[in-house]
Design goal:
single chain, alpha/beta, TIM Barrel, globular, binds 1,3-dihydroxyacetonephosphate
Length: 250
Amino acid sequence: MMSRKPIIAGNWKMNFTPKQTKKFVEELAPLIEGVECDVVICAPFTDLVALRVATRGTRIKVGAQNVHWAKSGAYTGEISAEMLKAMDVKYVIIGHSERRQYFGETDVTVNMRLRATLEAGLRAIVCVGETLQERDGDLTNEILSRQVKCALKDIDEVSLRRVVIAYEPVWAIGTGKTATAQEAEDSISYIRKTIRRLYNSSLATAIRIQYGGSMNSKNVAELMAMESIDGGLIGGASLKAEEFAKVIKY
Ligand code: 13P
């Protein structure tokens, strides 16, 4: 049996100041000493310095929530992968459904951001997932294979090893409605099959795939017990240190 290292990542979205960041990490770090999984916090750009300082000497890795595809230039308001790398950022979330929904993110721009991220030597958490309408229309697998295929266009096998995929059904995000463990497992194993089709079975077995969408200390164990699920991308439940620690220690 191949064993994949679990990865629990918090997505703080647009929450917390540097001061709150420091306080949060001071509370969280002692609660998760000795855990074995990868732990990441994806914070707003403005918190990254504070997060990097506060997480020194802990097992928490610093992540960002978006990145621009260009190396530098006239892109007012944007941040490049090189800039993130220079701040010791290790992970970048790409293609979150909120960005697809509110900020015009497309499969094409997801791919551009992913290529820039991997070229800079960073790791990526690429988000995919269907809307409720798509699920009801029986389009889930079609949407997932399209999103995965487009996101990974021109990504070579070696670089793919630095990619984590997050399956986040849009209808489960921030709604308190979690996919059942079996629904999550079905979609995630379908994503794995898609990777096998696009690459090969050893990469399909090796790639880590998270579940995201109203994941919390109450449902984490059941989700993590599923064969294909390797971790979580946690929104609301990553904003309280005690609750997030419980998720990490599922
Ligand atoms: P919630 O955990 O708040 O549902 O958010 C999930 C999410 O979007 C993580 O990226």
